[in-house]
Amino acid sequence: MPVASPPAAAPLDSLNDAQRAAAAHRGGPLLVVAGAGSGKTLTLAARVASLVLEGADPQRILLLSFSRRAAHELARRAGRLLHQALGLPAGTQAPSLPWAGTFHGVGARLLREHAGHIGLAENFSILDRGDAEDLMGLVRQQTGVAEQTSQRFPLKGSCLAIYSRAVNSQAPLAALLRELWPWCVEHEAALKRLFNAYVAAKQDQQTLDYDDLLLYWHEMLQASPALAAQTGARFDHVLVDEYQDTNRLQAAILQAFKPDGAGLTVVGDDAQSIYAFRAAEVRNILDFPAQFSPAAHTLTLERNYRSTQPILDASNAVIALAPERIAKRLWTDQASSEKPLLVAVADDAAQARWVADEVLRLREGGLRLKSQAVLFRTSSHSAALELELARRRIPFVKFGGLKFLEAAHIKDLLALLRWADNPRHRLAGFRLLTLLPGIGPQRARALLDAMEKSPPDPWAAIDHAALPSAARSDLARFATLCRALRSGAMGWPGELTQAVQWYLPHLQRLHEQDHAVRALDLDQLQRLAAGFASRERFVTALTLDPPEATSDESGPPLMDEDYLILSTLHSAKGQEWQAVYLLNMVDGCLPADLATGSAGQLEEERRLLYVGMTRAKRHLQLIVPQRFYVTQQRQLGDRHVYGGRTRFIPDALLALFEADGPAQRARAAEAQAEAAKGPPSLPPVDLRARLRSAW
Ligand code: ATP
Ligand code: MG
Description:
Bound molecules: adenosine-5'-triphosphate, magnesium ion
CATH topology of the largest domain: Rossmann fold
Strand content: 5-15%
Strand order of the largest sheet: 11-12-10-13-14-9-17
Radius of gyration: 28 Å
CATH architecture of the largest domain: 3-Layer(aba) Sandwich
């Protein structure tokens, strides 16, 4: 007897009226501004699904989010809704959305497509932040800007930060310096000279840094109205999540892309804007409607579907203390008697123990590790917890740290892939040549100079160079590998396998102590590589959106295994878990850095707390260590500082939390009784008698 398939659910069926209005809006530009957990991301997904159902071509939908992970998640949600709506049988794929990504990723793709028109080499490489900083350092030295003044000149990292801020905020350098780097005001002219030289160096090497991906994209749209019209017209719909964290340049790109706003939808929450330090501009969201004529349609969502009422009450109260914000009323029908918990613990170690205990307790109660997350202000704040988790064999994955990609051995291999793609990438070449025994900086530079003069086979220069005999055979082998990689004959990911084979003996030589552990990372890199179609795709993806997950002592969890989530507050954006633990809720940690916080920075820290609290669905704990180790104070001698509970939860809000409540006291008493008992008493064993009777 045929089984009737369930009636297909339309993507808008489960939405509330306001959400449905947003998803069903057609025509001109649309802004959805709403608080945390109100379904902004879900509404975007439903909107995409319903557009496709109406006949929109998925190839012509551009979905932009703040990380590749978030963009893929959004596309996946849309795909699932579509799947249901089409009544597709399980196991079949809904149409995929090839243009879901970050601004930077999409920029890179479009620039590569149009490279020929705008004077860029098609094989341009992308500098990650570390490489960009190194190049800035090199140019700083070559231009001699620092020597020409008797005053302290900013170091390469600060120079890059100033440059990046100027590019992304589109603000005049003088004004930026006055506001953010007042001690650099007198260096304005020298910095301009430096930045010009930095731009020239990048162009000579055919490299683009992160900021260039936006800058060139924007310039391309400005410089050629025809190209702007053409690229804008290839997308019928452009949808942007987390719009509050876009910067001026990104807003300008969208405007140039869709001048009349047709098909443009942006969603966001001004109370969750947390990237001002990267020039995010909360005004983008406030100014969006008036950018168009007639003004963009604006919708708000007021019902929260994520959290229980007590969690929402506490989060709302925290953000209500912010002096400036668009007031929003958020409500939920999820009642609960469990208030968020404020937990006082003695110190970092006690905090780690408490969290590990609680995680296991909730797990015993049926909550998988994956639905629990520990969030913190700075990546290093989780160190003690990571050790505790490893000790107890609780697997975890950490987001927001870049450890994996920052590791020297991973950088070495990526440099090799980049250099094979683009032999003019001097930084990559320099890194690799100086890895080889017998090649110092001077010889590496000479070789790179010689290579530049010998196209089309730059590595031929290596064959002809005068070299010590010890270095010659290593270099010859290396040049052969580079040529083979460049030819593309080995295919992907075979190329990486060959590269790793070449590299392993060097890894052993360079990292005597821990080469075996590092080699595991190389395995991981090869596993990652298998998921990409080509070397170029792989290198671009890793440079733009490094795998944030680093698993350490506890070993890389398998995909179907259960593991706890550790994340910085910044990387937790847009996500949700049943249970959330916020570490180090003390002044000095949040807000971070008491000394330099301007009023604006302080408000951003408050929003960060709001973002953290609103990630929780059912259980929320804020941990307050009474003693708090401040490393920055090292020059004053190591010391413990009692920062006190974060100022963002003043006494007036305490009633919204369970502080040192009965549940907590009972658990503490239990733990104390357990500890007081000492190791369980064992019956005595007379070993001597045993041994005697054994024979
Ligand atoms: P954030 O501001 O944190 O990014 P958001 O506004 O994007 O949050 P979503 O992540 O889309 O919110 O939704 C929060 C939760 O509420 C999700 O679990 C989502 O599935 C659920 N949700 C949203 N709308 C509805 C609805 N109409 N019915 C049932 N669940 C919903
Ligand atoms: Mg969201």
